[in-house]
Amino acid sequence: MNNYQSSLFQNQQYNYNNFFLIAGPCVVENEEMVFSIAERVSSICKKLEIPYIFKASYRKANRTSGSSFTGIGDEKALQLIQAVGKQFNLPTTTDIHTALEATIAADYVDVLQIPAFLCRQTDLLLAAASTKKIVNVKKGQFVSGPSMKFAVDKIKQAGNENIWLTERGNSFGYQDLIVDYRNITWMKEIGVPVVMDCTHSLQQPNQTSGITGGNPQLIETIAKAAIATGADGLFIETHPNPSIAKSDGANMLNLSLLQNLLEKLVKIRASIV
């Protein structure tokens, strides 16, 4: 990470050899939930000296069914994300879907996340770049690791060097994803920090029920392999009760399992740096 990116964590005491963690619920459901999750994850990361960024979507634009939950209202959700950051001295991130949203969300968060299915959307990348915030671009399910250099080039050409790339698997048939860990190496060669999305990479999309499925029992496997292959950061969506989560519950990590997982990952990281 460059100096600007490292400054995200200036309010945190952490081990410089550790990976950084982006974690939180899939979407803002209510005030109590986001604050309780942030408090718990922040406490774990302080103990393990892991730099931490709180994540929550303020609105879900990409849903299988038109009846799926999308949010509690844009401004209200963004204000809650901002309040979490201030309360726990944490940097924050949320995903955006249009150029206008980039300008709006930049007033509330520190990192703008570009969804995988929009990673080639030039106007969105340029708008995110123009905010001068860190832009975290998720690699599309249909894109190779090396070809993500074009997304990076677009952002750099707009005058923003603060870029991360996130691996989240590739489409495997109609209803599954597969992770090619070569992409972590290839994207690191582009010269930007690389994050592994340990939860969305286990999605089972396009279910006939209208609800995306998942394999959360494999989150530990995905995360261990990512650290072993050199990922700079991990992205993990977590919830105290995924079975009742309003979005992506089928592939989120139960919050009660997070500390044990991170303890293992810190040990793996220490063994390879």
Features:
single chain, 273 residues, alpha/beta, TIM Barrel, 8-stranded parallel barrel, two-stranded antiparallel ribbon, 9 helices, 13 strands
CATH fold assignment = TIM Barrel
Morphology call: globular
The SSE order reads HEHEHEHEHEHEEEHEEEHEEH
The proportion of residues forming helix, as a percent range, comes to: 25-40%
Structural class call reads alpha/beta
Main sheet overview: 8 strands, parallel, barrel
CATH architecture: Alpha-Beta Barrel
CATH superfamily: Aldolase class I
Number of strands: 13
The stretches of 5 or more residues where confidence is low (pLDDT under 50) are: none
- Alpha-carbon Rg, integer: 17 Å
Ordered list of secondary-structure elements with their pairings:
Elements: H1 3-6, E1 20-24, H2 31-48, E2 52-55, H3 74-88, E3 92-95, H4 99-105, E4 111-114, H5 122-130, E5 134-138, H6 149-157, E6 163-167, E7 170-171, E8 177-178, H7 182-188, E9 194-197, E10 203-204, E11 213-214, H8 219-228, E12 233-239, E13 253-254, H9 258-272
Parallel strand pairs: 1-2, 1-12, 2-3, 3-4, 4-5, 5-6, 6-9, 9-12, 12-13
Antiparallel strand pairs: 7-8, 10-11
Description:
Helix content is 34%, strand content 18%. With 273 residues, it is α/β, with parallel strands linked by helices. The protein has one domain: TIM Barrel (Alpha-Beta Barrel). The strands form three sheets. An eight-stranded parallel beta barrel has the order 1-2-3-4-5-6-9-12, surrounded by six helices. A two-stranded antiparallel ribbon has the order 7-8. It has a two-stranded antiparallel sheet with strand order 10-11. A hairpin with an 8-residue loop joins strand 10 and strand 11. The radius of gyration is 17 Å and the shape is globular. The mean pLDDT is 92.
